[in-house]
Amino acid sequence: MENDAKRCIYCGAEDDLTADHVPPKNLFPSPRPSNLLTVPACGKCNSSFEKDDEYFRLTLIMREDLAHHPDVQRVFPRVAKSLSKPTKRGFRKGFLEAVRFVEVQTSAGIILGRRNAMTIDTSRLKRVVERVTRALFYVERDRPLPPYYKIRCYLEPELPEGDDDPRAVIVRTLLAQSARTFGDGVFSYRYDLSSDDESASAWLLVFYERAYFICLVVPED
After folding, report:
1. Which is more confident, 126 or 105?
2. Where are the alpha helices (DSSP H) in the chain?
3. Which sign does the torsion angle of CA 92, 96, 98, 99 carry?
4. Any idea which of 2-11, 28-37, 51-60 has the lowest mean pLDDT?
């Protein structure tokens, strides 16, 4: 652990070490909790996360089912202020172009009205969730994840609905574990370790109490 603490957990670099917050600290309103987790990361890796972290936060707070969460409401003004900056013009334009109106209707075809919908770049969301899982592994296991392991992330639409899906068993197992929570429900996680592999594991990450992500840490095929 002593040597690991002097290396970036993402690339192994030993120079220009900084602290990467897990999860991204921009998800928390001010004042931020005092117990936020950090892991060693080089400046190059840490700075490369900024745009994905911002996209991740914006995607979450724009969800209708999260709009009434008190911490989402507290974070929103800061996000709006950030997007108004001239330096954010390209980011703002790209995100707004992904928002469109769709008609909502019943199964009988009765139109109930229109609502906002977004075209989400799921690869960007998964990059953030994968990084958070990698960092949590470091926190819980006191060592970086070996390079020959990969992390498979599943977003909510990809999660199992029926008990016959093997992932449904994983979800039930994770829900039986104790959760570690940060902020007023801003973030929580549960994990379960494999009994015959010291690195294989499953993780349940929850943001703002309703946005769920499942990550499986498995050896390369």
Report:
1. 126
2. 43-48, 50-61, 70-83, 89-97, 122-141, 166-175
3. positive
4. 2-11
